Amino acid sequence: MELIHFPASATADDISAALRTDGYAIVDELAPSGLMDSIADEMAPYIETSMFGQDSFLGLQTKRTGALIARSPAARALIMNPIALETAGIVLRKASTFQLHLTQIISVHPGSPAQKLHQDEVAWDFFPFPLDYDIQCNILWALSDYTEEMGATRVVPKSHLSNRKKYDMAEAYPAVMKRGSALFYTGKVFHGAGRNRSDVVRQAVNLTYAVGWVRQEENQYLSTPLDVAKTLPDDLLKLMGYQLGCFSLGYVRDGEDPMVAIREPAKRETYNVGILRDTANTTQPHLAGFLHDIDVRGQQA
Ligand SMILES: O=C(O)CCC(=O)C(=O)O
Ligand SMILES: [Fe+2]
Description:
The chain is an alpha+beta fold. The protein has helices at 12-22, 33-49, 68-71, 73-79, 82-91, 220-223, 226-229, 234-240, 277-282, 285-291, and strands at 5-6, 24-27, 62-66, 98-108, 136-142, 154-155, 173-174, 182-186, 191-192, 202-211. The chain has a single domain (5-221), classed as Jelly Rolls. 26% of the residues lie in helices and 17% in strands. Bound molecules: 2-oxoglutaric acid and fe (ii) ion.
C-alpha cells in the first residue's frame, strides 16, 4: 500500500479532509528548496552540537534540535506557511485559539532502528482526549529526501479513528517524499520514525500546532529571548503564545494580554470574554451559550 499524496496546489480544505478520513496527508514539495537550504544552513552549527537521544523512544542515534524561531530566521517563514496555518485552523477549529507547540529538527542517523509507533498527543500526560476533538496538527517537513531506506516516518492510516492502542509495524507505511514536502498528521494517528538502513542522515523539520489551552511542548517564551521576540511580527508572536487563550489563559500584569510584554499597547485592557464572540458565533455553540447574557464594556451582546 502507498500513502496518499497531494500536489503543492492542494487547499487547506483538501488537506484537512484527508486528516479527518485518513489521519495524515502528504503534500509534495510544498516549501521551496531555497527555504529548506536556508534553514539547513542556519541550523547546521546547532545540529552539529545537539545531543543524541537518551532513550530508544526518542532515539539513541537521533538528534533533536530546537528553538528554531530564535536560531533560524528562515524557519519563521516555514512556521507561518499559509497552507499549514489554514489547515491547522480547520483541524483545531473547536478551540478558540491555536498556538505553536514545538519547532524541532529531527536527524535520524544511519543505523537507527525504527521508533515505537505512537500518538503524539500522549505528551499531555497520556490523557484520553475524545476521538472527535483534535488537540494538535503536526507537520514533518522533509529537510532531506525521505526514502524508506533512510527511515521515512511510518504512518498507520486511519488509526486516529479508534481507541485501539497497539499496532504492528506491518500496518505502518513509509511517507516517502522529496525534500520540501510536508507530512501532515493528527495527534491521534499512530506513526514513528522508520529504521535508517542507509548511509545518510534522514532529516525533518517538525513543526506542530496545538489548541491554545494546553501547555506547549517547547517553551516558546524561554526558547526565544525577549530581545529577539521584540523584533518579530505580531502574527508570529501571537502564534508563539503572546495572545490570550480562550479569554484569560496566559495573562500578565493586571489581567492583560501577554503581548504587553513585547510592546506597550495604545490602550490598556483587561482580559474579557468579549474576545470569544468571533469564534463562539460560528463553530462553538457551548461558548455562544455562555456568552449570550454577558455584557462586555463597549461591545453589544
Ligand atoms: O522523526 C520522525 O520520523 C518521527 C518522530 C516522531 O514521531 C516523534 O518524535 O514524535
Ligand atoms: Fe511522533
